[in-house]
Specification:
This protein is mainly alpha-helical and 167 residues long. Helices cover 65% and strands 0% of the residues. Mean pLDDT is 78; it is low at 1-29.
Length: 167
């Protein structure tokens, strides 16, 4: 009976260890070195993710990034439609540039929100990376469109029609 009790106890203990280390034991954590003295002449940045609020906090920041990106994309698309209409009806250069500038501001906000997620848990990496790539793509395209707008408005009225290719 003692032998069965001992085997049963070892089995329960081994099972408990496996269950308890299942999630957190998959990666080896770096050991924390605690200094003998705290160096008060240095600045320290501490990032802490509380297990109970990480998903909510991360999700809220990510939602803000998506909302800002969508605003940027909508403004960019509005410009693209205007360009496809060969800048008709005519607008002032300032108004057209403001459309692209507003897109850039919204995109910059999205970018900054994504930077806040730099230390997010790994399960968010792919989504964050994909959104960051989209943000950078719209930023680059917006810059190209600003170059087009500047060249267009610098050209004489008679040359402006040549900026648009007939399809």
């Amino acid at each position: 009976m003692k032998k069965i009790s001992k085997v049963l106890s070892l089995t329960v203990a081994a099972s408990s260890l496996l269950l308890l280390s299942g999630c957190h034991g998959a990666k080896e954590a770096k050991s924390l070195a605690i200094p003998d003295k705290f160096d008060t002449s240095r600045s320290y940045e501490i990032t802490f993710w509380a297990k109970n609020d990480t998903n909510k906090t991360q999700t809220d920041i990510y939602k803000k990034a998506i909302k800002s990106f969508n605003q940027a994309a909508d403004l960019y698309n509005e410009f693209v439609h205007y360009r496809q209409a060969k800048f008709q009806p005519e607008k002032e250069e300032k108004e057209v540039n403001e459309l692209l500038d507003a897109s850039n501001r919204a995109n910059t906000a999205a970018y900054n929100y994504l930077l806040e997620l730099a230390h997010a848990p790994e399960e968010y990496d792919t989504a964050i990376r994909n959104l960051m790539e989209s943000v950078k793509l719209i930023m680059a395209r917006t810059e190209k469109q600003k170059e087009f707008v500047n060249a267009y408005y610098k050209a004489s009225a008679s040359k402006r029609k040549s900026f648009f290719k007939d399809r």
